[in-house]
Here is the input.
Amino acid sequence: PGARFWRWKMAALLRVVLRRCCRLPATGPGLLPAPASAPAARLLTGSASTPGSASASALAGPQDQALGFGDGEQPEVNLYDKYPEYHGFSSDPVSDLWNMRMAFFFGISLAIVMGSAFVHYLPDRGMRQWARREAERRLKHLETQGLPPIAENYYDTEKIVLPPSGSE
Here is the structure.
């Protein structure tokens, strides 16, 4: 297979991944969704209609009438109801929104902020800071008594096992 084949394969794979990740429909040219049907063309002229002809707004269907033309008002379309935001927590838009808010509140506010405070106030790991403070305290105590920091017989010489002097 040539380079064109692999380029086509990668483009097809990319389309499949983007459709699944972005929830795009599988129809339409390329990655775009299928276009809606084209609205019927209208003829809007500034001249008044003659008694035997129909006006442009009368010829157009109710979905094609522009605002301000025609007798009735067009119903307002709530785009949130038509295309709701989906966060992946629930199929109900209201509970999905609240579940997303709760997840981010507990995930970010509590886990990061409270977690970092908890880690900061954990006890000293390995007790390194305590050992240093204790050593400094003992050295200061020995200096005040006039004793050397380490005594000559710090270890009991009777308990130290030395290797024989002939072997190296």
